[in-house]
Specification:
single chain, mainly alpha, two-stranded antiparallel sheet, 28% helix, disordered N terminus
Length: 340
């Protein structure tokens, strides 16, 4: 049986005999120093304990406000700003969010606000404000957003048309509102249309995609944060984007129509036109941009322009599509002329 006496331990680890004796002498020396009226040696904090874990703890050294969001809300307490607390950014249970445990709250996005508080709200260097008319440069505003969102929504942002035109994230997003308008089907078109006014006007024409009816959005076709495709499309090509919804025209077909396989935009204006089916021009004029009229009764719709000065009822009634109805392609063995 082991009859050795137990030794003092530190953090659950058994000390050797010489270390135990040294610890007893050290404690005795410290007590003697105190009894003799001498001040004990100062305790040096480790690096781990000196790092601030909250805005309040770090305000003296790093410029953050003393009480985080509580300090901000003394002045910034209007309803439009308080809507932030009903958004994902203010979830205390999300460790990745600004209001998660140990987060910097408002100052996670707006930067250290201690100096801002000391000069009673005047705009100091270091505070980042957002949106049109902000003091902070657009690049600085976007840098704050991309610090968290570069890996998800904005992984292609640097190559996007919006970034090239110095558009700020806050020009489109309103993050203090419980429901960001640009992320809602009913209001996204209005937000995009503030800049893209030509496309907004096309949506008011008789033939258009149902954006203003709330059945789709601009982001159904476009990726505003950037993509490798033309016009920031969500798919690699125009046709792949269109056939996401218009699958019946995807093909492949036994008999192809070359302009269709090349680009839907050859014939259609996607944002809207005054002609049926979003066409750029009315048939037969649209068809005659590629197909010459010689040897075929498809001259312009005037009596003087047709053989025998007699207009064809088929031409006048429905143009080329009256006969060539399968204009997007045909799988019929006899459909080489796209007539069946």
């Amino acid at each position: 049986m082991n009859l050795q006496p137990m030794r003092p331990t530190l953090s659950g680890r058994r000390l050797p005999a010489w270390a135990a004796v040294a610890l007893v002498l050290l404690l005795a020396g410290t007590g003697a120093a105190v009894d003799a009226g001498q001040a004990p040696a100062p305790v040096v904090a480790s690096a781990a304990t000196s790092v601030a874990t909250s805005p309040a703890a770090s305000s003296a050294n790093s410029g953050y406000s003393a009480n985080g969001a509580d300090t901000c809300l003394i002045c910034h307490n209007d309803p439009d700003l308080l809507g932030l607390f009903r958004t994902p950014h203010a979830r205390p249970s999300d460790p990745r969010g600004p209001f998660g445990h140990g987060g910097l709250q408002c100052e996670a996005c707006h930067g250290p606000g201690g100096a801002h508080v000391r000069i009673h709200g005047r705009q100091p260097a270091g505070i980042v404000d957002f949106g049109p008319g902000a003091h902070a440069a657009v690049a600085r505003q976007n840098e704050m957003c991309l610090g968290c969102h570069r890996g998800d929504a904005a992984h292609d942002w640097g190559a996007s048309a919006h970034a090239a035109n110095d558009v700020g994230c806050a020009d489109c997003h309103q993050l203090h509102l419980p429901r960001d308008p640009v992320q809602q089907v009913a209001t996204q078109t209005e937000v995009c249309g503030k800049c893209h006014q030509g496309e907004r006007a096309d949506l008011l024409k008789p033939s258009h995609h149902p954006l203003i009816e709330g059945k789709m959005t601009c982001t159904s076709c476009h990726s505003p944060h950037g993509s490798t495709a033309h016009a920031s499309l969500v798919a690699d090509t125009v046709n792949q984007t269109c056939t996401t919804c218009h699958a019946e025209f995807r093909g492949p077909f036994l008999w192809e129509h070359q302009p269709v396989t090349e680009d839907c935009d050859n014939c259609h204006q996607p944002h809207g036109t005054a002609l049926p089916a979003l066409l750029k021009s009315r048939p037969p004029f649209l068809c005659q941009q590629c197909h010459e009229t010689l040897g075929h009764p498809s001259m312009p719709n005037t009596p003087a322009g047709l053989a025998g000065a007699t207009p064809s009822p088929f031409l006048l009634g429905g143009s080329c599509l009256n006969c060539h109805s399968q204009v997007h392609g045909s799988n019929n063995p006899s459909g080489s002329a796209l007539m069946r």
